[in-house]
Amino acid sequence: MNKILLLFVLCLSSYVNCYATTPIKIIQPESWWVGMKNTELQIVIYGDKISDWKMEMNYAGVSLKQIVRTSNPNYIFLYLNIDASAKAGVMNLQFTNGKQKFTQPYELKIRTRNPNEIKGFDESDLIYMLMPDRFSNGNESNDVVAGMLESKVDRSNPGGRHGGDLQGVI
Fold first, then answer.
1. Hey, CA dihedral for 132, 134, 140, 142, is it positive or negative?
2. How much is the pLDDT for 9?
3. What is the rounded CA–CA span in Å between residue 85 and residue 39?
4. In terms of DSSP bridges, do strands 54-57 and 75-82 run parallel, antiparallel, or are they unpaired?
5. What backbone phi and psi angles, to 5 degrees, belong to 17?
6. What is the rounded average pLDDT of the residues 118-135?
7. Does residue 62 contact residue 53 with C-beta atoms inside 8 Å?
8. What is the pLDDT of residues 94-122, one digit of tens each?
9. Are 33 and 111 in contact, with CB atoms under 8 Å apart?
10. 3-state class of 106 per DSSP?
11. Nearest CA to 103 among 26, 28, 40, 20?
């Protein structure tokens, strides 16, 4: 009985050491799809000193092209190629740092929608950004703003304030 309990405790501690100490905080995108026209995928991983870890993976149809580490040790960028033979499933990103190890699952999903059924870009995707300063100056009383770097209106300066306002838009 004591041997079984000891074995259980050892297995539990291995599990806790492997998964509870994962430094990863964010992975973007959280998942991806197989069968995409563009086979390249960039995954951004953010976590405490994640660049100190060595990363490997082995998943049929997916190749790791490059790992990019930046001057910020909390980011790495993975560049993958997901070819047409890749199947949907969970690929495991295996991280090691000395004797420490953990596995980060990453899901590849099946594309369920027909690309011909996807709604394209249209007017509902737009936000119109109005730049009132380039319209008429309909209210000269708001032209001078105390503390503003360019406190005066200067329509002769293409990069300067022109004094346009919402009253001028109206």
1. positive
2. 45
3. 11
4. unpaired
5. -65, -35
6. 79
7. no
8. 999 999 999 999 999 998 777 677 777 78
9. yes
10. strand
11. 20
Record the tokens describing residue 56, joined without a space.
Answer: 């490997």
Task: For 10-55, write each residue's pLDDT tens digit.
Answer: 444 444 444 446 899 999 999 999 999 999 999 999 999 999 999 9
Task: Check if the beta carbon of residue 108 is closer than 8 Å to that of residue 88.
Answer: yes
Q: Which residue type, as a one-letter code, is found at position 138?
A: G
Contacts of 105 (CB under 8 A, 6+ apart): 90, 91, 92, 93
Compute, in degrees rounded to 10, the torsion defined by CA atoms 91, 97, 100, 102.
-10
d(CA 94, CA 90): 12
- How many Å separate Cα 81 from the centre of its chain? 18
Give the pLDDT confidence score for residue 1 in this predicted structure.
56
Asked if 162 contacts 126 with a C-beta cutoff of 8 angstroms, the reply is no
CA 27 remoteness from chain centre: 7
